[in-house]
Amino acid sequence: MTIPASFIQELIARADVVEVVGRYVQLKKAGANFMGLCPFHGEKSPSFSVSPTKQFYHCFGCGAHGNAIGFLIEHGGMGFVEAVHDLAGQYGLQVPEDDVSPAERARAASQRQKQATLTDVLEKAGDAYRKHLRQAPGAIEYLKGRGVSGEIARQFGIGYAPAGWRALASVFPDYDDPLLAESGLVIVNNEEGKLSEEEAKRYDRFRDRVMFPIRNVKGECIGFGGRVLGDEKPKYLNSPETPVFSKGRELYGLYEARAAFRDKGYALVTEGYMDVVALAQLGFPNAVATLGTACTTDHVQKLFRFTESVVFSFDGDAAGRRAARKALDGALPYATDVRSIKFLFLPAEHDPDSFIREHGAEAFARFVNEATPLSRFMIEAAREGCDLTTAEGRAHMTSNVRPLWSAMPDGALKRQLLSEIATLVQLDAPALSELWASTPGPRKAGGGPAQQQQQRRHDEPPNYGDGGADDYYPDMPPPQDYEPARYENDSKPKFQQRKFTGKGGKRWGGKFEEPIEPLRGRGTPPSRPDVAVRLLLSNMAQWEALSHELHVMLCDLPGQHGALFTWLDSQLHEHGVQPWAALREGLRGLEFEPLAERLMSVAEAGPVPEGEEAQHLADAARELASVLDFMLEELLKKQENEAIAAFGKDPDAPNRFRAIQARRLELRARLRSSGSETA
Q: Residue 62: what pLDDT?
């Protein structure tokens, strides 16, 4: 999708930068220009100038400058395309798109209209919740008990959802409107016997809860979080995923905290709504919170639109360390030389609110200042469980740290860390760099018999086709005259399969054969997501060892696979590592239970011989690594295409494309290197 340059020029000419900026900054006439306090840094005397003749803004204090589109990008945290659409909408203009069909354009317009409509519905509900709070003494007492003032409650738009099943019916006369369910405000439940006939179909999702509106960067309400007043479960309840709300991309309090990021110099990422509200009350309005999920790369990227310094705050217990490890994975790709990323671990008995109340704001500020830098936390995470007094322990750390270090953008920080890592593992930096450059990576098979089997599974020349080994299922070594199982996909095979020869130094013949007809009676071959499901349900500990990027990739898979992996991630956060028997019980009644049962019935068919458990787990880990490598390469291809589509609209698109392409080519080279090795 490309927006014509002529339209962008017309839009800038049509828009009034004074009007656009004036919606967010109080401006006063000063000669030919308008002046106000700069929204990009804290100041007491106005140095922010907006010129109606030049249609330009400039801050003489911090140097920020640009046009109306640039202001929406910088102040609103929008992408280029989003800013163009937002500004065009303000002036009643339709954004033309050169390479978009009329049907696609109509679908996009319909989606934007739906999003605007859902936001209106949520805003109306938010107004009603705030009115209900005034007549809810229990909710008011709860907020006062947590030290929340009326001013802070108004700033965050806090409200109260009454205890009745259908309180929103008084707000929305048409309670059967599908938009109420689509926005997540109303639950449609056809179960019999639980409610009266009148209430059986629909009831409010949020009941008897303090309500926290979740706003996007433009200040629009896109969802809610509700907290119970007592000890009922669940303590917190979020809006479901909707066309306007995705918890993996949104941060609670971001809209309110943007200006404070500049005043305080950093963003503080916490774990809950009340942390954000309490911190704002206690002098730290620069706090935001993830919405009941691990910190993602989308969260980190969004934060770095507003600040160059981020501090993640977690509890000091095992769950807090796991959450910090997820945040590390999300932050590493953005750890440039000019950014600061730190990890703050509070004492186990404290959250930010209680720590400040007991020790004071200055003590908390010092605690933040002394937080663990990303470089140190990365090293600590990599060396965990490794005995650096032994060669084996140092080799283990080398394997652990490589994917973390590789995820960082090139720069002085990354190169300094290479030297630090090399010292810890008792190698010099050039030797470590050469080692990593000459081997496929920590997932590469070694030289033992089991490892040789794994290598033979990928024994294909590097130029057999673009898909290549992607189309093989790396299962057990094939017997004589065996046809390699084919992955199930929507496209035709990218190369012709070859018969197993069983002769010579390689497992596969050197010539291409005619396509082999599928063997009858074997059933549908497994897809890569199928294989990943089977392996991860068989050994849940492997999920915890995967990078955040792989977690996101698997959870974002379409259909039941993505839903199952999302559920598996939630189980790890709530209950830790569980065996398949426990997971099976948790799956009862869920839509993806049949998928899991079908795949695990195959896994359970052959018991592991006694004494071979460790080897079995190692082989399964290598098999999972191989499957995920192929899936990741496909994802990187998709991201490359998305970056190409953004050329001309997003100034960062060329750099993003080059970075993604370099990663994909490195991954492809590793796969080819592994596949071309002889036994």
A: 80
Contact criterion met (CB below 8 Å) for 311 and 268: yes
First to last CA, the chain: 47
CB 295 within 8 A of CB 312: yes
Rounded to the nearest 10°, the torsion over CA 488, 490, 495, 498 is: 20
Which of 174, 178, 167 lies closest to 129, judged by CA?
Answer: 167
Looking from the CA of 399 toward its CB, the CA atoms found within 13 Å total 15
**Phi, psi values for residue 487, rounded to 5°:** -75, 145
Q: Residue 554 corresponds to which amino acid?
A: L
Helices (H) and strands (E) in the chain, counts: 27, 16
Provide, for the chain, the percentages of residues in helix, strand and coil under a 3-state DSSP scheme, each rounded to the nearest 5: 50, 10, 40
pLDDT tens track for 128-150: 999 999 999 999 999 998 889 99
Cα 482 to Cα 498: distance, rounded to the nearest angstrom: 10
State how far Cα 344 lies from the chain centre. 20
Is there a contact between 168 and 128 (Cβ–Cβ < 8 Å)?
yes
Taking 90 as the threshold, does the pLDDT of residue 414 lie above it? yes
> DSSP secondary-structure letter at 509?
-
Question: Is the distance from CB of 145 to CB of 275 less than 8 angstroms?
Answer: no
Tokens read off for 429: 């930096």
DSSP bridge partners of 252? 289
Decide the pairing of beta strands 56-59 and 48-51. Answer: antiparallel
The long-range contacts involving 471-477, CB below 8 angstroms and separated by at least 24 positions, are: 471/495, 471/497, 473/525, 473/526, 473/531, 474/623, 474/626, 474/627, 475/623, 477/453, 477/507
Measured between alpha carbons, how far is 161 from 184 in angstroms, rounded to an integer? 14
- The pLDDT, as a whole number, for residue 464 is 28
558 — alpha (psi -120 to 50), left (phi > 0) or beta? beta
Phi and psi (nearest 5°) for 346?
A: -80, 155
Instruction: Give residue 427's pLDDT.
Output: 93
* CB burial of residue 295 (10 Å; 0-12, 13-18, 19+): buried
DSSP string, 56-115: EEEETTT--EE-HHHHHHHHH---HHHHHHHHHHHTTPPPP-TT--HHHHHHHHHHHHHH
**Closest CA relative to residue 533, chosen from 542, 521, 520, 545:** 542
> Helix axis angle, 374-383 relative to 412-424, nearest 10°?
30
Distance CA 322, CA 343 (A): 12
How confident is the prediction for the chain on average, in pLDDT? 78
Beta bridge partners of 372: 343
Q: CB-side exposure of 591: number of CA atoms within 13 Å? A: 9
| pLDDT interval class at 286 (50, 70, 90) | very high
Q: Running DSSP on this structure, what letter comes out for residue 35?
A: E
Instruction: Provide the 8-state DSSP code for 32.
Output: T
Beta-carbon contacts of 189 under 8 Å, excluding residues fewer than 6 positions away, are 195, 200, 201, 202, 203
The pLDDT of residue 524: 58
pLDDT tens digits for range 203-226:
899 999 999 999 988 888 999 999
Alpha-carbon gap, residue 398 to 404, rounded angstroms:
10
- The DSSP result for 309-332, as a single string, is EEEEEEESSHHHHHHHHHHHHHHG
Task: Please say whether the beta carbons of 640 and 654 come within 8 A.
Answer: no
